[in-house]
Amino acid sequence: MSRQVFIGIDIATSNIRAVAIDQSGTPVARANAPLAQVKRGDDKSATQDSKSWISSLDNVLTQLCKQLSETALIPQSLLISATSGTFVLCNKDGTPIADAVMYNDGRASDPLGRAAKVIQASKQSGPFIFANTPEVLIAHLSEQPLAAIPTDSSHGLKMGIELSSRDYLTTTNEIANSLNITLPKVVLPGTKIATISNQIAAKLGIPAIPIYAGMTDGCTAQIAAGGATGSVTSLGTTMVIKVVADSNISGDGFYSHLLPSNRYLLGGASNIGGVSYLKYEADLENLNKKAGEIDCANFITYPLTVTGERFPIKSSTITNLVSAKPESDVMEYRGILEGIAFTERYAYDLLQKAGAKLSQTIYTTGGGGKSKVLSQIRANILNRPVAITNTTGSDMGAAFLSFASHTKSGEDLTSALAAINISQIEIFQPKPDQALSSNYQKYLTLISPYI
Length: 451
What we know:
Number of domains: 2
CATH class of the largest domain: Alpha Beta
Low-confidence stretches: none
CATH superfamily of the largest domain: ATPase, nucleotide binding domain
CATH architecture of the largest domain: 2-Layer Sandwich
Radius of gyration: 23 Å
Number of strands: 25
Strand content: 15-25%
Shape: globular
Number of helices: 13
Structural class: alpha/beta
């Protein structure tokens, strides 16, 4: 095994995870630590103590570097991924004026709108520094002023960035100026941002390695499962669809992130998924067996458990759609699985029509991949092999990008990512299924009032 390893860190809502991989993409060390609990206010605020980001980062890096030291593995680079839209507002010295604002804070619909609420509550006039999560942690690790740390075009996208110019929209700058906020400079993912300080490197027992600009957790999760070219379906509580395109594509419920130098990662998130069959969670093994014995469901459903959908249908009024009452729990479960697969097919078709390129194989992450019957239904209706991947997680994707950033030629992360092996657990090959195809046409009729 190579002595060289590459570190990826993912900052989620409740914890920080870190992983080190070797040059083949194999994980060789892992660590995690909890973050402070998110506080929710009567004003719909959702905030978190940003000091916990730093203490937890120190914790995971100490754990990880101890493991590396014990096995004589030497880190070469580090890259951080985080949740898109979470930020902290600081004074000119880089000290937070309030707790960090979470991506789902309800005081406004966009980051600068939420920043305005923070400023109003603080009764301060500024000047202020706006910092996404990675910038705060990179400033800490490099012991550089927060104002000197740029953001990447992926983490900064929700602020309003024009990817062609790699800079903020005019309206974004105007709003920031009106609030006396300085926005971080924008750089591309894979750009060297800083170096771990000698003092912190000595404390961790590692070289003073470079820190590269990363991408958001949704992008790194896609990269972990499908590399730079794969189409990825994440089947967790909800369903997230991610594909690759050669141009900047956006539409109702989906938009693109730039993966330098020639790829765009785009996709959207649905409100259906594992939550659609949550009531059957205790009996899934039995239901999967029996559902696999049914040729197809005798009813059609769009299996929402809430009112409103984001993608591939964008509607605030759509709710659970059912063509008929299922005759049994097994039949209902089978229909829900088909509804998930039909929605996935419809989503991919929409993205293809918009200009996206689907990979020959659809890569799958998340708990939904454990259902063999669902995987086979998906393969049949997608008419593509469905691969259940073994390399999952935003921390793994961050580590992949860490490796690619350190070994790339110029701005080209995609070629470097191609050198990493995407491990697969099982592949489901498509089979002709006329009954399922007929049900898909009925599904399109069922959802037609909303599209």
